[in-house]
Amino acid sequence: MADNVDIKDATDTTQTLATKQVSSVHYPYTTQLGKAVSTTLTRPADTTAYTAKDAVTNSTSAPTPLTFSSCARFNGGTVKLLSAVFESTAAPAATPPNFDLLLFDISPTATNDNAAFAPSDADMDNCLAVIAFVGQYPFYTDGSNNWLSHWQAPNAGVLIKCASADTALYGLLRIGNSYTPISAELFTITLNMIPE
Predict the structure, then answer these.
(1) Averaged pLDDT, 45-51
(2) Is the dihedral of CA 130, 136, 140, 145 positive or negative?
């Protein structure tokens, strides 16, 4: 005899799962529900060229880290990171930029935009993963208005655990090569994951 079980997902929405009776015990057929969590960064209104290993942030004087909200289902939860997409509103550059996204479980202190990337040792103790968006490949463009870069997790994904009192992940962005941005260039970064 089969019936259903209601559970709450990460967005507090009720999901109904079918169950199967085995020896008077009901086992739910659980389907892991993937989600995409995005954040944006609008860089300062200047066109100052970056050099390799500069920080890329939203301010030259009071920067804030990136926040990927509600990644885990509950505080201290784990997510399986499957892939990520990095998109820009700029026209494609002759030499596409390479970006490293460092992910943290505790909000780090951001470095001023266009200064040498210099996180503290204490912040780096909370770094859980580094995602490399390599501008040469895979790199996609619509020809004139924007571009995006894609990262695919190795094997079955990368497991990341949120801090004990948080469901969010935090990010710092570092550039890996020389790049001349457009003024107030908008970056959108999306993490595709499965909350465990």
Answers:
(1) 96
(2) positive
